[in-house]
Amino acid sequence: MRTAEIHRNTAETQIDVTVNLDGTGLYSVSTGIGFFDHMIEQLSRHSLIDMDVKTVGDLHVDQHHTTEDTAIAIGEAVAKALADKRGISRYGSVYSPMDETLSRVALDISGRPWLVCKLPFTVTKIGEWDTEMVEHFFHSFAQAAGITLHIELLYGSNNHHIVESAFKGLARALRQAVEIDPRKADAIPSTKGIL
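Above: the chain's sequence. Below: its structure in token form.
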């Protein structure tokens, strides 16, 4: 089983994350930010990665530390569970429709973190989650997981749908990328021999 636990404790947040890359999308999520919880639940359910995420953060300050540190902990857990990445498909890409919205997500579990994120918003909050935290989540996750991640809104107008389309797209692309390729289950998917 490709599993990992991360315990991240700072003066700003206390976080416990467990993941199972070979799960069925079971989740238990509590960050103190309702819409953020909903997005992590979508990430788990549609990637089929079991996730248990418990975050206690300094929400009396703002949502930055809670969002960033949760993303880092999830990314670190995914990276740890992948270990040497032997046998993974490595790449994933999807078009993610949600009603009037269509997003494109492509990623490479490369060991070279990078984010290109093109998600325009017309509101500053969805529920109580600040929309500027959406890109920050993706950036922090990609950095911690060692993933090259591209997310782009092709079209759409409902801000809730835009965010959910992006998270579901990340989930489906991640599911493809972490799957074991039965044709090369014993090999590192790189000509360098390391990722």
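The mean pLDDT is 97.
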